[in-house]
Design the sequence.
């Protein structure tokens, strides 16, 4: 494999390209008109614009991407995550075009892409499941009877769902019919598939996932777990490896279950098996993500394994160069997702210009990002700016290092999740490890993430704002996107104030 096209954008495109470069492999970037000046475009050996900003006309246009591959004589496609990474039809198109798809087979994607077929496959290996229905259910009366048998509270989930869409918690029978209709309607709207199923609602769960790697020679290993319980809107914001609550025995049991789930769909490549862990440390299979995860760096930090390089080697037909016994956990790693979102306004996206963008540095600090100072956060895509990862000899060192790194991260022009992530790092529940997926609902009061400004600091802020306003008037001649409001709003107030 001499040339790889990365069918993605931003930080993950850059991250994949760096590993390719270390392997002596040429890279091709594709980009939309909105990403013309993106760092991943500059970094690649070759780059081609594939369409307008809208994803459907660019990053989701598989035919265009394959045309570029043919034009530039590309050997393989790495899909990153999101976009076409779990699209079975695209994986088949790539294969039919005689190009290597760096990921699992279309068949594996289809089996694990639907929660019901995934449960059916995993059940063959006696993987623990949350009590509920084995198949889709659409008859209200039948569904009511099932819910009564399972026991309230119950969870109605979309079969083709993700990200919390098509999901409803029902506390009592009187609310069931209305919530069932809402879940079906949302599932149809979001996924074009109204199939839903019922599970017992696990109160206070932790979200634990296991990284797996499988080669084309039948070898499958697990690379331990990631704790992903700090979430907003059912989407992760803070991840760490290893989990602070798993015993070695539970870790091994979960790892072997993850390997069996991968075997159940003949999995090849890097994948993640997700579990719920209840308050009694009972775990239940949730789903399998048939791609590289956003949070994969924390696994790389504690194992020393470059997961992208392993993906490429597996796609080339090579055997895994290590066995399960070769893998060990060394140290602790934490990752936060730096989103252009306002935590004080229900984490709503905050689009604007990165007037200041300075990343933290130093021992044990890694930043995977796809932006530079002066760039606009586009409205067309996920608002993640970067992933900030720290590593330490133990959890406390990784946590303290993360606090320092957050304080050293300077972004102005948009609101970000940095203040919220610092709030998490300093909260007693996180420090003690006694938290679950309800962390935000239970503990986060936006006012707690704000620091009070002293009188002197307020005066400095007013002076800085006035200067920034004057600068913004001249800058507006260069960029019509700049505005006084964007130019003077700092996302992140800390002990050393930066405006």
Sequence:
């Amino acid at each position: 494999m001499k040339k790889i096209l990365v069918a993605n954008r931003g930080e993950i495109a850059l991250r994949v390209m760096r590993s390719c470069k270390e392997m002596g492999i040429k890279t091709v970037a594709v980009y939309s008109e909105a990403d013309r000046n993106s760092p991943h475009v500059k970094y690649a050996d070759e780059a081609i614009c594939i369409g307008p900003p809208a994803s459907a006309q660019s990053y989701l246009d598989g035919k265009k991407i394959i045309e570029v591959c043919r034009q530039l004589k590309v050997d393989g496609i790495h899909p990153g995550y999101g976009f076409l990474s779990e699209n079975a039809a695209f994986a088949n198109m790539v294969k039919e075009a005689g190009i290597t798809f760096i990921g699992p087979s279309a068949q594996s994607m289809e089996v694990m892409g639907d929660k019901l077929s995934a449960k059916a496959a995993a059940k063959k290996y006696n993987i623990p499941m949350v009590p509920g229905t084995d198949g889709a259910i659409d008859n209200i009366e039948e569904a009511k009877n099932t819910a009564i048998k399972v026991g309230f509270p119950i969870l109605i989930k979309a079969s083709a769902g993700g990200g919390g869409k098509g999901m409803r918690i029902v506390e009592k029978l009187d609310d069931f019919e209305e919530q069932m209709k809402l879940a079906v309607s949302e599932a149809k709207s979001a996924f074009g598939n109204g199939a839903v199923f019922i599970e017992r609602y696990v109160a206070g769960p932790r979200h634990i996932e296991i990284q797996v790697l499988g080669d084309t020679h039948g070898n499958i290993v697990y690379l331990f777990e990631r704790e992903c319980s700090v979430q907003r809107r059912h989407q992760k914001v803070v991840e760490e490896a290893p989990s602070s609550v798993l015993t070695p025995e539970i870790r091994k049991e979960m790892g072997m279950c993850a390997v069996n789930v991968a075997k159940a769909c003949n999995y090849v490549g890097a994948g993640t098996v997700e579990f719920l862990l209840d308050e009694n440390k009972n775990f239940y299979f949730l789903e399998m993500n048939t791609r590289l995860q956003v949070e994969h760096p924390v696994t790389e930090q504690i194992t020393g394994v470059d997961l992208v390089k392993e993906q490429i080697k597996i796609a080339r037909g090579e055997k895994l160069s290590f066995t399960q016994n070769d893998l060990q956990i060394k140290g602790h790693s934490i990752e936060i997702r730096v989103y252009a979102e306002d935590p004080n306004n229900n984490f709503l996206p905050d689009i604007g210009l990165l007037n200041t963008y300075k990343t933290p540095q130093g021992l044990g600090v890694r930043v995977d990002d796809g932006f530079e100072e002066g760039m606009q956060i586009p409205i067309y895509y996920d608002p993640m700016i970067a992933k900030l990862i720290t590593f330490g000899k133990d959890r406390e060192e990784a946590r303290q290092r993360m606090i320092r790194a957050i304080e050293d991260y300077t972004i102005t022009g948009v609101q970000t999740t940095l203040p919220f992530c610092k709030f998490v790092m300093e909260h007693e529940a996180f420090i003690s490890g006694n938290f679950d997926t309800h962390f935000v609902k239970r503990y986060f009061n936006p006012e707690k993430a704000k620091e009070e400004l002293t009188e002197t600091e307020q005066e400095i802020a007013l002076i800085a704002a006035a200067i920034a306003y004057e600068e913004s008037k001249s800058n507006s001649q260069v960029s019509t996107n700049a505005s006084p409001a964007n130019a003077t709003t700092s996302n992140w107030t800390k002990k050393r104030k930066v405006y």
Notes: The chain has four domains: 3-102, 131-200, 206-448, 453-488. The two ends are 47 Å apart (CA to CA). The CA atoms of residues 352 and 418 lie 16 Å apart. Residues 455-475 form the longest helix (21 residues).
